[in-house]
Every structure is written in structure tokens, then in C-alpha cells.
UniProtKB/TrEMBL annotation:
Coiled coil: none annotated. It comes from the Eukaryota. This is peptidyl-tRNA hydrolase. Belongs to the PTH2 family. NCBIfam families: arch_pth2, PRK04322.1. SUPFAM superfamilies: Peptidyl-tRNA hydrolase II. It catalyses: an N-acyl-L-alpha-aminoacyl-tRNA + H2O = an N-acyl-L-amino acid + a tRNA + H(+). The keyword Hydrolase applies. Keywords: Hydrolase. GO terms for molecular function: peptidyl-tRNA hydrolase activity. CDD domains: PTH2. Its EC number is 3.1.1.29.
Amino acid sequence: MFPSILNSNQPRDQRQKGELLAGGFKPENFIPGVVIGFIFGLLLDLSKPSRNHLYKKIFSSTKLQQQLPVSSRGDQELKMVLVVRQDLKMKSGKIASQCAHAATGMYAELMQSDQYLLRQWEQCGQPKIVVTCRNQQEMNKLKETAESIGLPTFVVADAGRTQVLAGSKTVLAVGPGPKSAVDSVTGRLPLL
């Protein structure tokens, strides 16, 4: 099969080396090896946050950067606040469902836009606080204020299958973000 390897005129060490190389590489092991290597590399990449990533997308506003020194180690305490509209008179089960939509909606957006922030929030235990606002106008103002200082927001628009009209804005998620920044937007609102 490999005449140069099996040639008895070659020194014994060279023959053994050639036999090891010829027997070690098998085409049927190549593809699984590449796949395993790719998965291993991907896991290593996702498990270590970039040291130079400073919430560049979410907290890019200079006003927020002046208020809060953002550490590259990500050692700030983060939280999310869910703001529920009181004027819709939703029952407790509906509120719970809408808050879940808001939290998972924000999570899904951050999976696409800022996984580093998401990982930092997860390491803080994913704290969430639920508060109330009076109506749609107050919710809109809160959303604008949060976005003006660089905090991520997500608004739930109800499908209209049960208690509220289709398209009703039921819950606003603010954050995750540094506790003091989120509190500057939602800190005066009453707890649910």
C-alpha cells in the first residue's frame, strides 16, 4: 500500500515513524474531529467575555458614562424593571403572563444585540422588579427617558385574545442595566 514506508532498506526508526503517520490518519475520523474542534472552540469563545467590550451598544450615551463608570470586568450590579399599566385593569394571571413576555422579549433581543450584557445580568442572578404606571402616556415617557440614557427597552403589545384589546401596550421592560441608571428612570414608581 505504501511501498516507500514498507521498504526494508530504510532505517528502522524512519519505518516506525512512517507507519505511525500512515496508521494515525483515517479519513473517517477527519470530519468528526473538525466538528468537535469547532464546537469546542465555540464553547471557549462564548464562555469568556471580551475584556475590551464596555457595553458599547447599550450604554453608549455620554451622559450615562459620566454618571456611571462602566468596568471592563463587568462587576456592576444590573437589574431589569417591568412597568405594568394600571389603567388596563389586568388580572394577576394576565399581568404575570405579560411580564413574562416582556422579560423573554428583552432576553431574545439581547441574544442578538449584546450577549455580553446578557451574561453579566445572568451572573447577577437576573434580578427583576415589577412596578406600575398610570397609563400609556406615562409608559411612553418612561421608555423615552430610558432610551435617552442608553438603557435597552422592550414593550409588549398584547394579541387581544383575552382581557385587553389587540395592540394594547401592556408592559415595558427597562434594562437590564446598572441599578442606579434603571432606578433613575423607574425608582419613583410604586411596586406592584
